[in-house]
Amino acid sequence: MTTLLPSVRIPAIRPAAPLAAEPWNEDPGDALLRHFDRVHRERMVGLPFLNPRLSVVVAACVRHAGDWLAGVVTPWSLQLVLLPGGGNLWRDTASGARQVLQFPVGELVFIGDEGERDLPAFLYCPLIAPVEHITEPEAAVAILRDALDAVLTPSGPVIEETSGGLVSEPLAEPVSNSRRAFLRGRFR
User: Fold this and answer.
1) Model confidence over 71-123: pLDDT tens digits?
2) How far apart are CA 157 and CA 151, in angstroms?
3) Which of 30, 90, 167, 169 is spaced 20 to 30 A from 41 at the CA atom?
4) For the domain 5-151, what is the CATH code?
5) Model pTM?
6) What is the model's pLDDT at position 186?
7) Peptide bond preceding 52: is omega within 30 degrees of 0, i.e. cis?
């Protein structure tokens, strides 16, 4: 049993059993774009937390472990979206229910959602919300591409806790001929 799930909020009302999702044989990027664009136009118009500088964009959609993992920019969030592709990551999940899924970087919590005609079921992992501080659409796309790379890379940066907070250590320091590098044991 994972240690992550107990720290995740469990809904007070249990959702209905999920419908079995059909696997996507082809890249579902266009369906993701249509779905989130429709949500933006029909349900989100006028909400104060929307970032008018951002529009709906599928930053990338890749196949991983037989399923589809995408990075989606919306005016309200940056998120990872998982769709069934016949692989071993996908779990049919009721809307609002959480799933802890194993990726090369480690465990991530995804939330089930029952979409609509173009996108009947998907899991999403919100990364950044709200997104009012992101001023350039290109930056949002770059953030999601970097996030996808990080999620699909087996070893991320080492995080150390110090008295001043969390510190991220780089994976590898460049080799140097300096005296400081010699004293740290990192020399040529």
Assistant:
1) 999 999 999 999 999 999 999 999 899 999 999 999 999 999 987 877 889 99
2) 12
3) 90
4) 3.30.1460.40
5) 0.75
6) 52
7) no
- Whether the per-residue pLDDT at 161 is higher than 80: the answer is no
Angstrom distance (rounded) from CA 14 to CA 26:
33
- Distance CA(113)–CA(22), nearest Å, equals 14
Entry field: residues in the chain: 188
Residue extents of the structural domains in the chain: 5-151, 158-188
**Which distant-in-sequence residues (6+ apart) come within 8 Å of 77 by Cβ?**
126, 127, 128, 129, 130, 131
- Mean pLDDT lowest for which of 57-61, 128-132, 151-155, 168-172? 168-172
Torsion of CA 34, 100, 129, 59, to 10 degrees: -40
pLDDT digits (tens, 9 = 90+) for 56-79: 999 999 999 999 999 999 999 999
